[in-house]
C-alpha cells in the first residue's frame, strides 16, 4: 500500500522502480499495489497515471497492461477510521485474489505530519492484523529534531516493531554508497591505511545545481542541515569511518555505524560556528541562464534565515580517527551536480623527487557516487624523459552505469530489500536519534542568530568563501569535484 500514491515520489520513483523489478522477474505474478491518496480516482484513472509514470521514466513502448492490472486505488482520509476499514476490506480481497499469504508493506510517501496518525490507525483499525509479515516503509523527514523524532518513533512503534520499520535514506540505495563497504573490506591495500596514521583528511561533497524548486514550504522548515546533513551526509560518514563488522548482517553493520555516530565530537556554543559554515544562494547564472536568489523563490520568506548550503568539519574521537578532520559540504544551486568522497593520504616522510620547490601530490582515493560512478586512485609515477621527476597519474575505474542505464535505481534496490526483509540499507532508530542530537546543537545556534551575510554565495558557484577558509585554517583545500 502506497500512501501518497498521487504524489511526486510515487510517480517519479516508486512506480518505475516497481516496474523494473517486475521486468527483471523480481516480482512474481502474486502481488498487488494499492495506491492510497485523498483524491477521488477510479482504478482505471490510477492505472493510467501509473502507466504514464513508467513511460516518462523509461519504457515508452513496453506492454504495461499486465503490470498495471495489479494496481488498485483507494480514495482515503488519513484521519478517518471508516476509510481504513474499507481499505482493510480491499486489502483482504486482494490478498485472497492474488494469494498473498497476508504479507503487507505499508509505504508512507506523503506529508510527514501524517506519519504517526497513519501508523496508529493501521493498528487500531486492524490493517496490521495479518497472517504474514507486516512492514512499514517511511520516508524522510523522520522528525524535525530529536524530540519530534522520538515522538514519531513512539507512535509508529506502537504499531510496528523496530525490525518491521524501514526508514528510507535513498543514499543508502546508491550503488557507490553500497560500494564503500566493499572497497574498504574486500581489498588488502586500503584497510591497513584506513586510519589516522595514513589519512590526513576526508572530504565529502554532495552538490546540486537545482534550487529549491517548488519545495519552498518544506525547505523553509528544514534547510540543508536537516535536509541533507542529518541523514545522507552522516550516513556516508558512518560507512566510511566504521570498523569492519564481524559479519555482514544488518545488526552487525548497524552497530558499527552507531559507534561512529556516538564517537562524533558534539559541537556546542562557539564551536558550532568554528566548525560549521552556512550559506544561502543569491541570484546567479546556471548554464548561461539567470536564476533567482533563494529569498525570491516561491513560498520562501523574503528575509529567510534558512541555509541552502552547509560545510562542516567533523571529528571522530576514537583510536582510528582521532585528529583526522572529515569535511562535509552540501548545497543547492552550486556549480555542478556531484557527489564525491575524497580520501587524502598523508605525505610521505621525505620527497626525493622534488624539483624547484615543487611538492609531490598527495595520494588520493576518490569515490565517485554520482553522476559518474567509479573509483580513482591518484599516485605519483615517473615523468617520461631523462630526469627522474615524479608526475601524478590516475588509475580509474568507471562503473558501466555512468548514464544510469545499467545501474539499478536506489529506490529499486531499497524496495526489493524491503520485500526480502533485508533492513541493512535502512536507518535504525539509534542512528536517527544520534544524528538528530548532533545536528540539533547546530540548528539551535543558527536559529538563534540571524545570518547577517545571507545571501552569501552566488548561484552557480561552489558556496561561500568561508567554506574554503574552513579547510585553509587546517592547511587543506577542497579537491575539485567537477
Ligand atoms: C533529498 C533532499 O533527500 O535528496 C533533496 O530532500 C535533495 O533536497 C535530494 O535534492 C538529493 O538527492 P540526489 O539523489 O539527487 O543526490
UniProtKB/TrEMBL annotation:
PANTHER family for this protein: GLUCOSE-6-PHOSPHATE 1-DEHYDROGENASE, GLUCOSE-6-PHOSPHATE 1-DEHYDROGENASE G6PD
Q: What class of enzyme is it?
A: oxidoreductase
Chain's gene name: zwf
Organism this protein belongs to? Cytobacillus solani
Question: Is Amino-acid biosynthesis found in the keyword set?
Answer: no
The record's Gene Ontology cellular component field reads: cytosol
Listed GO MF terms: glucose-6-phosphate dehydrogenase activity; NADP binding
Q: From the UniProt record, give one GO term of the biological process aspect.
A: glucose metabolic process
Q: Cite the EC number.
A: 1.1.1.49
Protein's recorded name: Glucose-6-phosphate 1-dehydrogenase
Pathway given for this chain reads: Carbohydrate degradation; pentose phosphate pathway; D-ribulose 5-phosphate from D-glucose 6-phosphate (oxidative stage): step 1/3
From which residue to which does the signal peptide run?
none
Amino acid at each position: 500500500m502506497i500512501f501518497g500514491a498521487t504524489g511526486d515520489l510515487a510517480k517519479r520513483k516508486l512506480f518505475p522502480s516497481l516496474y523494473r523489478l517486475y521486468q527483471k522477474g523480481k516480482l512474481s505474478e502474486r502481488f498487488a499495489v494499492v495506491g492510497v491518496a485523498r483524491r477521488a480516482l477510479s482504478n482505471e484513472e490510477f492505472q493510467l497515471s501509473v502507466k504514464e509514470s513508467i513511460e516518462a521514466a523509461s519504457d515508452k513502448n513496453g506492454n504495461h497492461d499486465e503490470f498495471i492490472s495489479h494496481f488498485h486505488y483507494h480514495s482515503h482520509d488519513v484521519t478517518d477510521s471508516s476509510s481504513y476499514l474499507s481499505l482493510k476490506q480491499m486489502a483482504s480481497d486482494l490478498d485472497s485474489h492474488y494469494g498473498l499469504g497476508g504479507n503487507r508493506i505499508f509505504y508512507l510517501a506523503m506529508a510527514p505530519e501524517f506519519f504517526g496518525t497513519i501508523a496508529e490507525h493501521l493498528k487500531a483499525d486492524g490493517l496490521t492484523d495479518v497472517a504474514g509479515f507486516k512492514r512499514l516503509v517511511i520516508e524522510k523527514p523522520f522528525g524535525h529534531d530529536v524530540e519530534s523524532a522520538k515522538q514519531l518513533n513512539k507512535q509508529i512503534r506502537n504499531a510496528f516493531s523496530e525490525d518491521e520499520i524501514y526508514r528510507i535514506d535513498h543514499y543508502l540505495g546508491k550503488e557507490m554508497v553500497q560500494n564503500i563497504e566493499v572497497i574498504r573490506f574486500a581489498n588488502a591495500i586500503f584497510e591497513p591505511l584506513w586510519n589516522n596514521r595514513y589519512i590526513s583528511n576526508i572530504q565529502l561533497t554532495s552538490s546540486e545545481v537545482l534550487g529549491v524548486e517548488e519545495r519552498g514550504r518544506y525547505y523553509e522548515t528544514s534547510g540543508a542541515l536537516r535536509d541533507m546533513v542529518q541523514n545522507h551526509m552522516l550516513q556516508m560518514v558512518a560507512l566510511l569511518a566504521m570498523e569492519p563488522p564481524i559479519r555482514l548482517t544488518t545488526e552487525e553493520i548497524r552497530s558499527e555505524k552507531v559507534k561512529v555516530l556516538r564517537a562524533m565530537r558534539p559541537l556546542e556554543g562557539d564551536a558550532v560556528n568554528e566548525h560549521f559554515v552556512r550559506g544561502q544562494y543569491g541570484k546567479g547564472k546556471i548554464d548561461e541562464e539567470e536564476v533567482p536568489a533563494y529569498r525570491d523563490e516561491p513560498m520562501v520568506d523574503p528575509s529567510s534565515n534558512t541555509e541552502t548550503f552547509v560545510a562542516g568539519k567533523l571529528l571522530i574521537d576514537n583510536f582510528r580517527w582521532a585528529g583526522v578532520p572529515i569535511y562535509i559540504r552540501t548545497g543547492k544551486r552550486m556549480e555542478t551536480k556531484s557527489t564525491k568522497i575524497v580520501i587524502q593520504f598523508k605525505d610521505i616522510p621525505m620527497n626525493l623527487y622534488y624539483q624547484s620547490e615543487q611538492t609531490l601530490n598527495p595520494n588520493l582515493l576518490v569515490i565517485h557516487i554520482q553522476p559518474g560512478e567509479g573509483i580513482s586512485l591518484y599516485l605519483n609515477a615517473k615523468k617520461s624523459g631523462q630526469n627522474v621527476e615524479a608526475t601524478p597519474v590516475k588509475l580509474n575505474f568507471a562503473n558501466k552505469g555512468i548514464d544510469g542505464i545499467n545501474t539499478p535505481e536506489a529506490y529499486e534496490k531499497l524496495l526489493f530489500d524491503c520485500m526480502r526483509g533485508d533492513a541493512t540499507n535502512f536507518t535504525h532508530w539509534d542512528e536517527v536519534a544520534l544524528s538528530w542530537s548532533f545536528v540539533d546543537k547546530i540548528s539551535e545556534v543558527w536559529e538563534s542568530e540571524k545570518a547577517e551575510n545571507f545571501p552569501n554565495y552566488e548561484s552557480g558557484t561552489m558556496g561561500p568563501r568561508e567554506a574554503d577558509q574552513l579547510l585553509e585554517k587546517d592547511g587543506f583545500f577542497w579537491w575539485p569535484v567537477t
